[in-house]
Amino acid sequence: MLVLSQLESSAENVTTLLESTVFHEVFHIEGRALRASFKSGIARYPVDGQDGNTLAQRAEAALKQAKESGEQYLHYQIQMHSDIAERLSLEHKLRAALDEQQFLLHYQPQIHIATGRIESVEALLRWHDPQQGLQHPALFLPVLESSGMIVAVGEWVLRKAAEDCRRWRAAGLGPVRVAVNVSAQQIRRRNFAEYVHAAAANCGAGGYGLDLEITETGLLHDVEGANRKLRELRAAGMRIAIDDFGTGYSSLGLLSKLPVDVLKIDRSFISGLPSDRASVTLVSSIIGLASAFNLAVVAEGVETTGQLALLGKLKCKYSQGYLHSRPVPAAELERALAAQAPRLRRSPSTETG
Ligand code: C2E
Ligand code: MG
Ligand code: MG
């Protein structure tokens, strides 16, 4: 942060000064001349704020806007405030959310179509904002991603999902598996595999029972690296699913290069079933493709019995969507799992009388 004092505080004065100094400064380091590029946000006393805190906040708001729009510098403007201040305050709240235990997981069943049983569930992140109540990822995930916080929050998600999975198994609720969404930033970490192992170690004996859901864009960045990391996790018993399949753009190439077990057909294709011919063609082609690669298929966003019937006919293996259940808190899922768990056979000794 640069504080320019005793400058006649007009917008032109500040920019003239910046342009003639910092923006044009050449740095001489180890005999080489380096020209650095700057982005800057400018707030002026007293028009933009009466105290240091306000000025710093507003300069930061202008800086964020400059970075986003690609401008070298921007002066703070009132209308930046509503957007950027809101985003900054959201980021601020999210920074505290992990420590304050405001994150939670909801679970949505994935149904084995042929038997109607829940074989696995997807863990979906929720945030309990103390002021606004329960928030869905669309609102806060972009901020977790842009701030890098997704790496720490994603680690919490893995740990929590592993813990719940272990508890359900211990309670005899069946060999249910839990699918966790992981973002590109997590996968890109050099130690991604160790990071997952460490978090999942909670799941105890008998394999982790965790699966990972990854989008195509998350894998494109470094296919070689992703390949190596995913193989390692798969060797430890995790299954790898491609999420939102069909919405990315290099689907086929990836399938042949990466260790993948499951394709999740994006909701946008399922919603056209059963009447829209193009959707039917697309979905049945994806199922055919998956079977050629020996992959299981999950249909996402199944909302009607008509969609389910057609998916069954097309030999899609799993179905997930509001038709079966919305994402629900762990306790509610436990009741659903208990309802389908085979009754424990009473041992002969208890059958007296
Ligand atoms: P996704 O992984 O594709 O998850 C499916 C989304 O579709 C969920 O939204 C789910 O509530 C919604 N959905 C399921 N069935 C239906 C249906 O029948 N109809 C409709 N209209 N929607 C349905 P949600 O929970 O809001 O999550 C949105 C996205 O946020 C997820 O998409 C995933 O990409 C991301 N996300 C969620 N949790 C995490 C997480 O822990 N880590 C990361 N990195 N991303 C997450
Ligand atoms: Mg998913
Ligand atoms: Mg999806």
Task: Name the descriptors.
8-stranded mixed β-barrel; elongated; 353 residues; disordered C terminus; 14 helices; TIM Barrel; 2 domains; alpha/beta; 45% helix; two-stranded antiparallel sheet
Biggest sheet, in brief?
A: 8 strands, mixed, barrel
Uncertain segments are 345-353
User: CATH fold name of the largest domain, please?
Assistant: TIM Barrel
Order of strands, widest sheet: 5-6-8-9-10-11-12-13
Folded structure, characterized:
By secondary structure, the protein is an alpha/beta fold. It has two domains: 11-76, no CATH class; 90-340, EAL domain (TIM Barrel, Alpha-Beta Barrel). 45% of the residues lie in helices and 20% in strands. It has 14 helices and 14 strands. An eight-stranded mixed β-barrel has the order 5-6-8-9-10-11-12-13, surrounded by four helices. It is elongated, with a radius of gyration of 26 Å. Residues 345-353 have low confidence and may be disordered. It binds ligand C2E and magnesium ion (2 copies). Residues 108, 124-125, 136-138, 141, 150, 154, 157, 181-183, 213, 243-244, 267, 300-303, 321-322, 327 line the site of ligand C2E. Residues 122, 181, 213, 243 line the site of one magnesium ion.
